[in-house]
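Need a sequence for this fold. Nothing fancy.
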């Protein structure tokens, strides 16, 4: 089920079921919930507060920086419609305050800039979040949909706790960003972690591991993300309670090193032949991994991102369709 209406717009058809699903996720061990003001808009944050306030130790993350103009759609030229970036300081300030009210919080544990706004200098948007943190309204700052250059620029202004970027397997960008996040112990939140594998070439490598582990391919995709780096925080979306349970169970799967390597290779090469030039630019992941202490490899379940500080230990992975709610493990 989804916790907003179709197109991530308006309320879900069955709000009681949405609240029940949120509570179920927490009952299953989820410790951190991520949402955005744009989901609904406002609907997802309100449902989370209705279902889970006073949170009892749960960490709530949200995002600002988009305005909604209608349900998600696609223009004739393939552009996303219904979402307009707004990274102006006055908008971010009022968006953050509205999220605080809807979530019934004094401070948001992780506030992410949902997207850079091409019409606003990135430093101005990030600087506003930094000011909100100084005022005590934000605990940690995250960014989303960023290039390495934008991430570097943000880091000159303030500490960046997480990067939420798309897991797009048609290029090596995810790999570059993961490496960058590992170097800084920044949480890497690869969104669309399941849909990324839709192509048959990608599915094939997951199927091989799935049969060995008596699991489904979605579970293998999630287990791989958890194993491939100590800083990944996968956020699978689901519309069904059964898939929620499946996805949480993926956290217990232990892939072998050769399986991790095979899946990583497929994720890096299956849709784009690797030339000598791209290989130099995107070294195989096991080469990067050697930079990390060996102990990290042996404890992939221990997320080594620096935030959220109170989120060590048992945690789960899950997310609700259309990006409405995203608990992660850390
Ligand atoms: N920061 C951003 O700009 C941004 C943009 C887009 C998305 N996101 C985030 O990324 C999250 C995930 O993205 P997403 O939902 O678009 O893509 P996704 O997680 O890659 O895939 C979701 C799809 O996989 C299916 N699925 C989930 N669990 C499954 C299972 N165990 N077995 C079989 N199928 C399963 C879902 O179907 P069912 O519904 O039937 O389970 C749904 O069709 C969102 O929740 C959102 O928070 C962030």
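Here you go.
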């Amino acid at each position: 089920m989804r916790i907003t209406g179709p197109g991530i717009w308006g309320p879900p058809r069955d709000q009681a079921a949405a609240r029940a699903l949120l509570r179920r996720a927490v009952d299953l061990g989820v410790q951190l919930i991520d949402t955005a003001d744009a989901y609904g808009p406002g609907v997802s944050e309100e449902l989370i507060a209705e279902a889970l306030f006073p949170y009892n130790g749960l960490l709530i993350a949200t995002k600002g920086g988009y305005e909604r103009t209608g349900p998600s759609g696609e223009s004739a030229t393939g552009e996303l419609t219904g979402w307009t970036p707004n990274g102006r300081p006055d908008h971010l300030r009022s968006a953050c305050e509205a999220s605080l009210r809807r979530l019934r919080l004094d401070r948001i544990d992780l506030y992410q800039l949902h997207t850079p706004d091409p019409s606003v200098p990135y430093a101005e948007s990030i600087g506003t979040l930094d000011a909100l943190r100084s005022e005590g309204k934000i605990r940690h700052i995250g960014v989303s949909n960023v290039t390495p250059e934008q991430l570097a620029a943000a880091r000159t202004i303030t500490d960046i706790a997480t990067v939420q970027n798309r897991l797009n397997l048609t290029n090596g960008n995810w790999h570059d960003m993961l490496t960058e996040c590992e170097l800084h112990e920044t949480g890497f939140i690869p969104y669309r972690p399941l849909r990324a594998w839709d192509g048959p070439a990608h599915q094939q490598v997951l199927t091989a591991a799935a049969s060995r582990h008596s699991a489904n391919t979605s579970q293998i995709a999630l287990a791989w993300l958890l194993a491939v780096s100590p800083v990944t925080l996968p956020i699978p979306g689901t519309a069904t309670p059964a898939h929620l349970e499946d996805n949480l169970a993926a956290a217990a799967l232990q892939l072998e090193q050769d399986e991790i390597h095979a899946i990583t290779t497929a994720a890096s090469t299956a849709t784009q032949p690797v030339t000598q030039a791209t290989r130099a630019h995107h070294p195989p992941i096991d080469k990067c991994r050697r930079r990390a202490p060996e102990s990290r490899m042996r404890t992939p379940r221990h997320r080594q991102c620096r935030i959220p500080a109170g989120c060590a230990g048992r945690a789960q992975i899950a997310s609700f369709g259309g990006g409405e709610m995203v608990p992660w493990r850390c």
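For context: Residues 22 and 314 are 18 Å apart (CA to CA).
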